Amino acid sequence: MKLFNKTIGLIALLAMLCFPTGAFAQSNNDTRVKAIRKAYAEALEKIKYGQEDANLNNKAVIVINQNFPGSGPSEFTVEYYFNTKDSEQIEGEQERQLYFMRVKERWAATPSVFEYLFNPESGDLMFYYSKTPDFETGKPSERRDYYTSSQAEPFLEIIDGKNYKKPVDDQWMFVQRFLMGYKEVFNNLPPYFEH
């Protein structure tokens, strides 16, 4: 009986030690999510003010319009929003630091939106948002992925209002693959434009 009581006591002690760790991890993720949401709101506010005053907005836009047989005209737009800083390599040049990117697609009059929020210092992906048509329900489907870095899978996914603490599908890998292509285009934009 003493052995049984000691075993129960040991299990209870281990449970108490593990519980605060779980609570701390949840608290840490909650803190990250709040910080990312704040950074997202600040990025959107900065973009909004940039639309009102072009001097406040560093932006590059790529638009492709194409007519596809059977589905009609389609439009694909990539908007890059960035900060600039003096180049450490070339005197008098400025480097671009991507902080937000929005991709808009319209295929056969069906719109989709994809947004990427970056840490402007490191360039790491912090947040991914998508709003795409769900042809089964007829309603748009929304997805929010929260990241700690561009190389990691998201630590939280919210898909149509449901929270998942680990990825529920491979969508995040497609996000990473497309992101690499978008960043390559951004990194190869001319450093300045001459008239």
Keywords:
195 residues
What is the strand and helix layout of this fold?
Elements: H1 2-52, E1 59-68, E2 72-86, E3 94-107, E4 110-118, E5 125-133, E6 140-146, E7 156-159, E8 162-164, H2 171-187
Antiparallel strand pairs: 1-2, 2-3, 3-4, 4-5, 5-6, 6-7, 7-8
Task: Sum this structure up briefly.
With 195 residues, the protein is an alpha+beta fold. 35% of the residues lie in helices and 36% in strands.
Protein model, in words:
- The protein is 35% helix and 36% strand.
- It has an 8-stranded antiparallel sheet with strand order 1-2-3-4-5-6-7-8, sandwiched between helices.
- The chain is built from 2 helices and 8 strands, in the order αββββββββα.
- The chain is α+β, with helices and mostly antiparallel strands.
Q: Percent range for helical residues?
A: 25-40%
- Main sheet? 8 strands, antiparallel
Strands across the major sheet, in which order? 1-2-3-4-5-6-7-8
Amount of beta strand: 35-45%
Question: What structural class do helix, strand and pairing data support?
Answer: alpha+beta
Along the chain, the helix and strand elements come as HEEEEEEEEH
Radius of gyration, rounded?
Answer: 22 Å
Structural shape: globular
Distance between the amino and carboxyl termini: 89 Å
Compute the number of helices.
Answer: 2
Number of strands: 8
Low-pLDDT windows of residues: 3-24
**Average pLDDT, all residues:** 79
